Automatic annotation (TrEMBL):
The keyword Cell membrane does not apply. It is found in: Cytoplasm, Cytoskeleton, Flagellum axoneme. This is Dynein regulatory complex protein 12. InterPro entries: DRC12-like.
Amino acid sequence: HSGHEMPPKKKGKKGGKKKKDPAVLEMEEKVARGIKENMSLREGIAQRKDLTRKALAAGVEAASTKDGAVRELEEMQEEAADVNAYMSKQYKMMQAQMGLQVNQLERDLHRANEDLAERTAELADLRRELERTVREKDEKISSLELKMQNLHSQYQNMLHSSLDSLIEKLKSEWLGFEEKETGLHQQYKSALLEFGLNTHDI
């Protein structure tokens, strides 16, 4: 269908509308069919484009989700590796520190044992020295006591001997004095008698 109006009928002529040329009709039909097919094709293309777009979008989303999951997994693996490395480093550091502390404690214990052995030996020496000092003191005390007893005995003996000697001396001197006194008394009486005096008169 061309869309143009048909020319007006001529007066005085019989018959209806003038038929189109078959070639023209066929051309018009081909054009109309072509337009319809073109529209259908365009709709199909548009639908396929839409489907393709949706599929691509879904694929991109899926790929994005997959990539995100892969990245997240890789990040988790990296974090796990970092954590493992950190923990391994911390464990090694702690192990080394504990090793140093154990070595230090062992050295301290060894030194303490040596000090204890030295102190034990010194204590044993002090105990022996104390026992020797006490023994010497006891021996000196016993010796002094014995000397004091001997001195006391000697002093007693000397004292008794001196007293006895002194008493004997005093006795001897007293006897001599009595003898002298008797002699003087007789001389005195004789002298008085010579002068005619009596001792009872004095």
